[in-house]
Automatic annotation (TrEMBL), chain A:
The species this protein was found in: Litoreibacter albidus
EC numbers, comma separated: 7.6.2.11
Function: Part of the ABC transporter complex PotABCD involved in spermidine/putrescine import. Responsible for energy coupling to the transport system.
Enzyme class: translocase
Name listed for the protein in its UniProt record: Spermidine/putrescine import ATP-binding protein PotA
Gene name per UniProt: potA
TrEMBL record, chain B:
Gene3D superfamilies: MetI-like (1.10.3720.10)
Superkingdom in the source lineage: Bacteria
Principal location listed in the UniProt entry: membrane
Ranges annotated as spanning the membrane: 37-61, 206-233, 240-257, 295-316, 348-367, 394-415
Organism encoding this protein: Litoreibacter albidus
Protein name according to UniProt: Putative spermidine/putrescine transport system permease protein
BP terms from Gene Ontology: transmembrane transport
Keyword Lipid metabolism annotated: no
Family: Belongs to the binding-protein-dependent transport system permease family. CysTW subfamily.
GO CC, any one term: plasma membrane
Compartments in which it is found: Cell membrane
Segments forming domain ABC transmembrane type-1: 207-415
InterPro entries hit by this protein: MetI-like (IPR000515), MetI-like_sf (IPR035906)
Keyword Transmembrane helix: yes
């Protein structure tokens, strides 16, 4: 799926393929346009080829087929050190034998920038990540979060327009990670740089990115802004991978007026929004977000199909209630409701009717 | 006021739960741990003490010990103390009589030949004097045969020579610096400390040669070993294992065999010369001399010590993550800059460890220089071995060994000052 809006991309992957061993394609036909100043995240399960894509962009791996362009120029034959791409590594890769300031000064030295200018730039970059006082320390004398900031400053100090980050926050604890997500986003926005960010943490991807590319099995499954990705997943994989999701398997009974009638294995009928289905008799997996399920039949349209559900578990989570139900032989059907004064608290063992707006229930590939 | 110990002001000593000062109970707890640890390493300590500390201490002692003169000739030593040898006059009858009594007693116990050998290190010829005189003096009586001066001089001219007595006087003290002076090409004469005659000054040159050649060997090991260690650390595991076997292969063959193989390779009728002659690069009557000289020693020892350089380098390089090089390149460094500014500095501890190992091993090396070194390529250790097994001058051997030990410690200290010993890593 190519995003047409970014066709004048700053970075573009054009039918890129990659194989390490000559037998398996790790990246299969990658097409991706990244606009200048965009924060694009590659999200996907382990082994889906995210790092490989990043390494091809940085120049440490060569594409087996296809073209990678930067600012309209093909960079296939440009060695890494001439690409001018900043990079933050997962383990930071700060040079242990140099101080923080020397680490930052390194890219400026190899660019033959004069001493005074170098020092000014190093200081400015350190100040930007609030590490101004740590220039004389060795990396080993810094905490994980501080090393992370220095690595970021080093990737930015030579004013790269494109910065690649491969799971830069993977080694930090949750609180620090959330703080750094915010910092990175703020700095990237301030400098107007283009960022390609790799993670397999979906919250990180959703909160930081302009657009998210969901990878699976060497392909981009969907490329969309975070809200669209969450609300309008285009495949079962994306629906399952992003956020919490309820899935039910069935067969398309009819498609009418943009509403598909799906017959579940138990014989129950439900209404769904036909996304990946077009023919009657096609197998489908319908997907519905836990917060879009309704208990209150008054809110549903006249004639909506409903299902019988048995309450298995009720969990009080403060701001929300999380109820686990058995629906059409699926024991893992989750419903999330807001904690409001009039909200019902379902007790295990109760049998209730549930339903949803047909537009919220997406009939996807099986 | 507050009685709760947890709320005590921090001014007083902190108390443990039972009221004893915390420091005391902590050290008591630690002492038991230390004792247990000490017990565990006790066998090793005993082993090290018996096989390492004692021999070295005895070597240090032997390099200055000289009680054989005073033990064998106790009366002579006392009598000769007041004699002034610089006048050129022989000692008087009193000294000769004391000497005769000492000798007769020594001959009875067969101790006189050992003393002769000992003094022979300082004045050659004295050994046979003691042996010959001993045979005759066996029948003498210490009282009835007096006076002795004339008789002794009759017995052997040497007893009428001032230098004989001067040597006995010089070496009558129970400790001597003589061995050390000899070890650095000086000598202890009755006139004081002087240089050895020009043609006998060989030991300093030998020390110097040992140092220089060890440095050259260490240097060539660094040059040859670095790329190999780099390959070992960066090849895929299967190929690296094969290479590792090749590196370790020399360890599986006897040192003697390897050194002899070099002899076969390098000698004038050897493989290399044959090939060069066959290829027409060298004329048959101008075959290269590659053995029994310094070149042969350096070549063979570089080969033999190479694994000791490669292994520490390798284990350090293995810990250098490839992402450092990638990071350097992504920051704009060329391959060479990335290597030189980022990779190489991190591999220096390995070079340091390998160099210390190779240098210290080679400075004390013995077999290889002995076999391929000829006369120009031998090391100080060959001289030490000669004094231990052939000339039996253990005192000089001990002095040479002590100097070698001191040089190594000195260089180690210098290395620590210049490079820093924490910069030496064997891995990890
Ligand atoms: N140097 C390599 N040689 C051979 N195969 C490789 C190499 N690097 C990666 N692969 C394979 O390519 C596939 C994709 O790897 P990649 O590192 O791109 O995944 P990823 O999406 O970054 O995963 P993760 O989230 O775990 O980092 C994996 O199956 C991996 O085994
Ligand atoms: Mg990865």
């Amino acid at each position: 799926m190519i995003d047409k809006t970014g066709s004048e991309g700053f970075v573009s992957f054009d039918h890129v393929q990659k194989s390490y061993d000559g037998e398996n394609l790790v990246v299969k036909d990658l097409n991706l346009e990244i606009a200048k100043g965009e924060f694009l995240t590659m999200l996907g399960p382990s082994g889906s080829g995210k790092t490989t894509c990043l390494m091809m962009l940085a120049g440490f791996e060569t594409a087996t087929h296809g073209d990678i362009r930067l600012g309209g120029v093909s960079i296939n034959n440009i060695p890494p050190h001439k690409r001018g791409i900043g990079m933050v590594f997962q383990n930071y890769a700060l040079f242990p034998h140099m101080t923080v300031a020397e680490n930052l000064s390194f890219p400026l030295e190899v660019r033959k920038i004069g001493k005074s200018e170098r020092e000014a730039k190093v200081q400015r970059a350190l100040d930007m990540v609030q590490m101004g006082e740590f220039g004389g320390r060795r990396p080993a004398q810094l905490s994980g979060g501080q090393q992370q900031r220095v690595a970021l400053a080093r990737a930015l100090v030579f004013e790269a327009e494109l910065v690649l980050m491969d799971e830069p926050l993977g080694a930090l604890d949750k609180q620090l990670r959330e703080h750094m997500q915010f910092e990175i986003k703020r700095i990237a926005d301030n400098l107007g740089i283009t960022v390609v960010y790799v993670t397999h943490d979906q919250t990180e991807a959703l909160t930081m990115s302009d657009r998210v590319a969901v990878f699976d099995d060497g392909r981009i499954q969907q490329l969309a802004p975070p809200d669209q990705l969450y609300e309008e997943p285009m495949s079962s994989f994306v629906a399952q991978f992003i956020g919490e999701n309820n899935a039910l398997d069935g067969v398309v009974q009819s498609i009418d007026n943009g509403v598909a009638l799906v017959k579940l294995a138990t014989g129950d009928l439900i209404d769904a929004n036909p996304i990946n289905v077009s023919k009657v008799g096609e197998k489908t997996r319908v997907s519905i977000r836990p917060e879009r399920v309704e208990f209150d039949m008054n809110r549903l349209a006249e004639g909506s199909h409903t299902l019988k559900a048995e309450v298995l578990e009720f969990v009080y989570m403060g701001d929300t209630f999380r109820t686990r139900l058995r629906v059409a032989d699926n024991d893992e059907f989750i419903v999330k409701t807001r904690n409001a004064p009039d909200q019902v608290r379902l007790q295990p063992g109760a049998v209730v009717d549930i339903g949803w707006m047909p537009s919220d229930c997406r009939a996807l590939d099986a | 006021m507050r009685n709760d110990p947890a709320n005590q002001e921090p001014t007083g000593p902190v108390l443990a739960a039972d009221g004893t000062p915390l420091k005391k109970s902590l050290s008591r707890a630690l002492r038991r741990q230390k004792m247990r640890a000490l017990l565990l390493i006790a066998p090793l300590l005993a082993f090290v003490f018996i096989t390492f500390v004692i021999p070295i201490a005895s070597m240090l002692f032997r390099s200055v010990e000289n009680d054989i003169v005073a033990n064998t000739l106790p009366e002579t030593v006392v009598a000769i103390a007041s004699w002034d040898g610089t006048t050129g006059e022989l000692p008087d009858e009193e000294v000769y009589a004391a000497f005769a009594r000492d000798m007769i007693a020594a001959v009875a116990e067969k101790k006189h030949t050992r003393l002769g050998s000992r003094l022979n290190y300082e004045l050659s010829g004295i050994s046979s004097m003691f042996r010959q005189s001993g045979r005759k003096m066996k029948r003498w009586d210490p009282v009835e045969d007096a006076p002795f001066k004339e008789k002794l001089i009759d017995l052997h001219d040497g007893w009428g020579d001032v230098s004989t007595w001067a040597i006995i006087q010089t070496y009558s003290a129970p400790y001597t610096s003589g061995y050390f002076l000899t070890a650095i090409d000086m000598q202890l004469t009755p006139e004081g400390v002087t240089m050895q005659p020009e043609d006998k000054r060989i030991l300093i040159r030998l020390f110097w040669r040992t140092l220089v050649m060890s440095l050259v060997i260490t240097g060539s090991c660094i040059l040859l070993g670095y790329p190999v260690a780099w390959l070992l650390a960066n090849l895929p595991a299967s190929k690296a294992n094969l290479l590792m076997i090749l590196v370790l292969l020399p360890f599986w063959t006897s040192l003697l065999v390897r050194t002899s193989a070099w002899k076969v390779m390098l000698q004038q009728q050897g493989v290399i010369n044959d090939v060069l002659v066959w290829a027409g690069l060298v004329a048959d009557d101008a075959r290269l001399i590659m053995i029994n000289n310094q070149f042969g020693t350096i070549l063979a020892m570089t080969h033999i010590l190479l694994p000791f350089m490669i292994l520490p380098m390798y284990s350090v390089m293995q810990t250098i993550q490839p992402s450092y090089l990638r990071a350097a390149k992504s920051l704009g460094a060329t391959n060479w800059t990335a290597f030189w500014r980022v990779y190489f500095p991190q591999s220096v501890p390995g070079i340091g460890a390998g160099s210390i190992l190779v240098f210290i091993l080679s400075i004390g090396y013995y077999i290889t220089p002995e076999i391929v070194g000829g006369t120009k390529g031998v090391f100080i250790s060959n001289r030490i071995a000669y004094h231990i097994s052939s000339s039996l001058n253990w005192g000089l051997a001990a002095a040479l060994g002590t100097i070698l030990l001191a040089v190594v410690l000195l260089l180690y200290w210098a290395y620590d000052r210049i490079v820093g010993i924490d910069n030496v890593k064997l891995g990890g």
